[in-house]
Write a structure and sequence with these properties.
Blueprint: H1 2-8, H2 12-38, H3 43-48, H4 60-101, H5 105-115, H6 126-136, H7 143-166, H8 170-178, H9 183-194, H10 196-212, H11 215-220, H12 229-239, H13 244-278
Helix pairs in contact: 4-5, 4-7, 4-10, 4-12, 4-13, 7-10, 7-13, 10-13, 12-13
């Protein structure tokens, strides 16, 4: 009994860490809770009773926000994010698989060349990208955002996926080769199914980046019909300065997809980011 109680005893360090985690959780969760509660209030409810719950729950704020323009911004962001995720997953898994298959120093050179993209700042590349997209005739299109987003997400995604691929047992690949499988079949039937955790991690990181990116979305898109959520919210709030409840509802709608995606994929995300950071 003494040994059991000793094992269950909580140290001072653990108590301090728990307190810090609780404080951090409150600092993160409470602003989100306040935004959600404010989205159900009217103007007077927000400014006269800042910390209280809504006296009347105005669900029509969400309908108004959706009808006043959030719907188009939302759909544009879904298209851009989906295209970016698809391109990043396909290109980075192919690239990581090819690097792992090469048995020479060329593999290390290719990997270092890809990682060199981490040294490029999006802000530094802003003007060259602007001129390039304009000369290609794809400025003010979805591709004007999708292609740069893919390019800037490739380095870190290849790094994570390659680290995970290295940990896949070679016996599986050798058995598949003996059975006559091609490299593409090995990629499709062995590497991809076993790499769901790290692919989930890449999907969440890419979705978060493309959904919230602001600088490129401001510079490369001119028409309001193709504006994404970050730029759209700025225009939306400017046009509704006297109705902050509707503005808050628009912010909640904008945050919802990423929150839902993370909740659905959080287990795979944690497994993937842990494995990708310690292997290789």
């Amino acid at each position: 009994m003494k040994d059991f109680s000793a094992r269950k005893r909580i140290g001072i360090g653990e108590v301090i860490w728990m307190i810090l985690l609780v404080v951090l959780a409150v600092l993160i969760i409470y602003p989100m809770f306040w935004i959600v509660m404010s989205s159900f209030k009217d103007y007077n409810g927000i400014f006269q009773d800042v910390w209280g719950l809504p006296e009347t729950w105005l669900f029509e704020n969400y309908v108004t926000a959706w009808d006043r323009g959030i719907s188009s911004y939302f759909i544009n962001s879904v298209i851009v994010s989906a295209g970016t995720i698809l391109g990043v997953v396909l290109l980075t898994t192919f690239a990581a698989f090819g690097i792992c298959q090469m048995k020479s120093r060329l593999a290390d050179f290719c990997f270092l060349a890809i990682l060199g993209g981490l040294l490029l700042s999006p802000q530094v590349c802003l003007m060259p990208l602007y001129m390039l997209l304009k000369n290609l005739g794809i400025k003010d299109t979805y591709l004007a955002l999708i292609l740069p987003y893919i390019a800037f997400r490739i380095p870190v995604s290849v790094m994570l996926i390659r680290s995970f691929f290295i940990g896949i047992p070679k016996d599986l690949e050798e058995s598949a080769i003996i059975d006559g499988a091609s490299f593409f079949e090995i990629y499709r039937k062995i590497y991809l199914p076993l790499s769901k955790p790290i692919i989930s991690t890449v999907i969440i990181m890419t979705a978060y980046y493309s959904w919230n990116e602001f600088v490129f979305a401001t510079m490369f898109i001119d028409s309001s019909e193709r504006q994404t959520i970050p730029v759209g919210l700025m225009v939306f709030s400017d046009g509704l300065m006297t109705n902050w409840g509707v503005v808050m509802a628009g912010m909640v709608i904008a945050c919802l997809p990423i929150c839902v995606l993370f909740i659905l994929m959080q287990k795979s995300f944690i497994r993937g980011i842990t494995a990708g950071s310690v292997k290789g």
